[in-house]
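User: Can you model how adenosine-5'-diphosphate sits in this protein?
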Amino acid sequence: MLKTENLSVYYNDFLALESVSFSIGKGTMTGIIGPNGAGKSTLLKAMLHIVSHQGTVLIDHKESKKQLKKVAYVEQKAAIDYTFPIEVRECVSLGTYAEKKLFQRITDKEWAKVTEALKMVDLEEYAHEQIGALSGGQFQRVLIARCLVQNAEYIFLDEPFVGIDSVSERIIMRTLKQLKAEGKTILIVHHDLSKVSDYFDEVLIINKNLITHGSVTAVFTEENLQEAYGDTLFIGKGGGAT
Ligand code: ADP
Ligand code: MG
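Assistant: Here's the modeled complex, given as structure tokens:
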């Protein structure tokens, strides 16, 4: 279970997130939506103690700071050096380091997990390629494979589908749905409103404040979207939502 109580974030004097409270059950796939600058990335970072915040974040009923090992996180446009000379399988194996001591070697069993993860995202045959040789979508799949290897209960992804090909998007969604079926809890900052109903069980709609949180069928309504997006709202079905 993920729970925030009155979560607020200030960047100096600027209030980016104001008193956000919600609770998310296990085994759900939740989309975080809201306009640019709404505080979506900030919300994930606050929950992960990457930015300082006021209020409380609980993971499985405990203060989140002590529970960070339970969370795998892929940041927005992952700030990994694409040209860094590292093989795909090595990049994925970094997911095992959460459970390792410094300089401890990766075991055969862990390499088997890496292979398994690469299989799940259809990149098995790329294991020995350099990451620089991959497309954006393939690289995003590598980052998802790294989350798999981490074996985290909670997976936070920040706009994982931006700028990637539709095949990669489909493979990632397939993988995430499988993880959800295994009881993992997935939180995704998401841009494309047209996919929300297909992808998520629940949505958190934010614009600095929490506009609403609930099942897609209950709260993904034009009225709530209008409140979050105002005049910038476009559903993307060939026209505005006016
Ligand atoms: P979103 O992910 O919804 O687009 P962000 O969480 O990135 O929004 O940002 C929310 C607001 O906080 C924006 O106005 C952004 O400019 C501001 N912001 C984000 N990060 C910082 C930072 N490190 N310092 C100052 N302001 C920031
Ligand atoms: Mg963002």
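A couple of observations from the model: The two ends are 37 Å apart (CA to CA). The helical segments are 40-47, 88-93, 108-120, 136-150, 166-181, 196-199, 216-219, 222-229.
User: Helpful, thanks.
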